[in-house]
Amino acid sequence: MNMDNLKPPAPMNFRANNLADAWDKWEQRFRNFYKATETKKKPKDVQVAILLEVAGPEALDIFNTFVFRGADDSVEPAIPAESKDELETVLTKFGEHCKPRRSVVFERHRFWKRDQQEDESVDSWIVDLRLLAGSCGYGDQENSMIRDKL
Fold first, then answer.
1. What is the DSSP letter of 75?
2. Quick count: other Cβ atoms within 10 Å of Cβ 136?
3. Is 63:27 a contact under the CB 8 Å cutoff?
4. pTM as predicted
5. pLDDT tens track, the chain, 150 positions
6. DSSP 3-state of 116
7. SS3 3
8. DSSP state letter for 96
9. Cβ neighbour number for residue 93 with a 10 Å cutoff
C-alpha cells in the first residue's frame, strides 16, 4: 500500500452531541493516521500543524484559546513547561476541552435508557451497551451493570 495515498480522518466534529466520545474516536483515527504516515519523523511544529489541518478549521479556533503553562521549578517535583509545538501536549489540551462536557449522571441515564431496537441484533446491542457503560464510571461493576440491563 502506498502511504502517500492514505487519507486522513474526516475533520473533528466539535459540535457533536457527545463531544467526549466523538473526540475519543477521532483521536484514535488520527493516531492511526499519524502512525501509518510516519508523521513522528517530521519536526514537532509540523506534527502539530498536521494535527490542526486534519482536525479542521474549528480546531484552529479552539487551539488559539489554549493556555500553555510555563515551567514551575518552585514546587517539588518541578512542573515542566507546556509547548504548543508538542503533539502530545496539544492532544491533551483538546482532550481536556472535549471531556469536561461528560457527565457521569448523563452517561448513566443514556446507558439505562438504551433499549434494544426492533431490527437490532443482541450482539450489536451488547456492543453498544459496553461502549455506553465505559463512560459511566462503574469500574469493576461494569459487567454486572450490563448483565442487569440485559
1. S
2. 19
3. no
4. 0.65
5. 455 678 999 999 999 888 888 999 999 999 999 999 999 999 999 999 999 999 999 999 999 999 888 766 665 676 677 889 999 999 999 998 987 656 788 889 989 999 999 999 999 999 999 988 988 888 899 999 999 998
6. coil
7. helix
8. H
9. 19
Query: What are residue 79's DSSP bridge partners?
Result: 72
Query: DSSP H helical segments within 37-121, as ranges?
Result: 44-55, 57-63, 87-98, 104-113
How far is residue 100 from each of residues 19, 53, 67, 93, 105, measured CA to CA in Å? 9, 24, 16, 11, 13
In which residue are the cell numbers 521549578 written? 73
The one-letter amino acid code at 28 reads Q
Contact 58, 66 (CB under 8 A): no
Which residues, 6 or more positions from 72, have their beta carbon under 8 angstroms from its beta carbon? 78, 79
The amino acid at 27? E
Contacts 24+ apart (CB under 8 A), 95-100: 95/23, 95/27, 97/62, 97/66, 98/14, 98/19, 98/20, 98/22, 98/23, 99/19, 99/20, 99/23
**72 forms bridges with which residues in the sheet?**
79
| Angle 101-64-21 from CA coordinates, rounded to 5° | 25
CA distance 8 to 55: 9
